[in-house]
Amino acid sequence: MKRRDILISSAALALAAGARAQMGGVPVRILVGAPAGGSTDTLARTLAASMGPALGRTVIVENRPGAGGNIAAELVAKAPPDGNTLLMSFTSHAINATLYPSLPFDPVKDFTPLTLVATSPSILVAHPSLPANNARELIALAKAKPGQLNFAIGSVGSSLHMAGEAFKMQSGVDIVNIPYKGTAPAVQDVLAGQVQLMFAAVGNAQAHIQAGKLKALGVTTAKRLPQFPDVMAIAEVLPGYESSAWFGLFGPGRMQPDMARKISDAARKAIATPEMHKRLESEGAIPVGNSPEQFAPFVQSEINRWAKVVKFSGAKPE
User: Fold this and answer.
1) CA-CA distance, 273 to 115, in Å (whole number)?
2) DSSP letters for 150-170
3) pTM over 0.90
4) Is the pLDDT of residue 58 over 60?
5) Average pLDDT rounded to a whole number, residues 222-241
6) Which of 35, 152, 181, 223: disulfide with 186, CB 3.0–4.6 Å?
């Protein structure tokens, strides 16, 4: 082989090795700002398993919980925009924009929205002893007894906390918040009648409702849910009320459009699989899988919407 051919061959091998390192040898990391085992983590792992074959790469999940998801978000915001580091975030991404007075990143400019993975409707539940059977009766009861009813809150600043604040803001009722360190103990105290009310994820509350241990007063979706046809949408008594948790996939800001599109397409293909649908249904979630162009304005609208509720609540980060 001539020296010129050797040099060309060596250069080609080097370029190929570089391409493999970027596109195949280095795994894609999806950072999750929540502990292992929760809904966000479970959905991220299911998504990663299906995205890998579509991308032709290994996709792994890393848990970086803390600060309402801000630790993971900051790591992704400051990562190179090469498609190797992604974020599976949730509603708190929008809530935190107002809840935290000073964030080390811009929740819009420092991220590339890739796709809205799913939404998760919530349901207003009460201990069976509460003398109200729907949202309309609850509002009347709360107005007759200001400050005497209470909401269990699993996490300050969460979507479920803000669902309660939006309810109070729109109805003008005074219901006291009882904060807990996690959803599980909050649910247990409502089941025991220690606290009267809470907003819960449908997936967490459905079995208790069916067993008669909790009473469903209203769903947070704009219309009634198929699995609860007899439970009113809160919007029937508070027009415009809506509050669903959501899960979304982001990359760092300034990603190249073709790279963002490739990852978004892989994620959307994964969301459409039977395995992902089954997992989402088990979590009480509804699959979405929209485009980056659709997801971006959704994120901005959520930041704007929750800003009003956070300010009304007076909540401070834990």
Assistant:
1) 15
2) EEEESSTTSHHHHHHHHHHHH
3) no
4) yes
5) 95
6) 152
